[in-house]
From TrEMBL:
Lineage: Bacteria, Bacillati, Actinomycetota, Actinomycetes, Kitasatosporales
Name of this protein: DUF1697 domain-containing protein
InterPro entries associated with the record: DUF1697 (IPR012545)
Pfam family name, one: DUF1697
SUPFAM superfamilies reported for this sequence: SP0830-like
Amino acid sequence: MTKTKTYAALLRGINVSGHRKVPMAELRSLLEGLGHTGVRTYLQSGNAVFTTASGAGEDELRAALEDAIEERFGFRVDCLVRDGEYLDAVAAACPFPAAELRGKELHAVYCSGPVVPERFAAIDREAFLPEEFALGDRVLYLYVPDGLGTSKLAPAVSRPSVVKGLVTTARNWNTVVKLIEMTHEE
């Protein structure tokens, strides 16, 4: 018997300013149609948690979800799928004092591949203080005390020349914590 595992799906760039609309009820239905159970969504910005016994890995689950979204809505959406254990590890490895910060001050930028230091070597960290970033394995931690909307560092770390070949999607720390909680719910 295949053991069930819980995952979070992170959709990139949907429901922004009325563009690329993916209603959460339809996303839940789509995930259920892919054979997943316990499907729940959080906010309107493309966060879903589901359980599967398929035995498929993150990349297979991602590809199936991207294909299903394109078939259903007529446009392709980049997605990342991460299991609950990975989300736990991201929170545990956070180098910033998450418990002392407001959710808008700290973000996890999830990446489709390794976040190697060479990609970010040309960024003059001193020039962006007090904003800071730290690298994880497939995540970049971004501390922006005035929020992401006014950040000067966020565009620098997400320039196409820096993240070339990676799919990235950011979540504020409140969302990071909520998705972890949701992956632990039965």
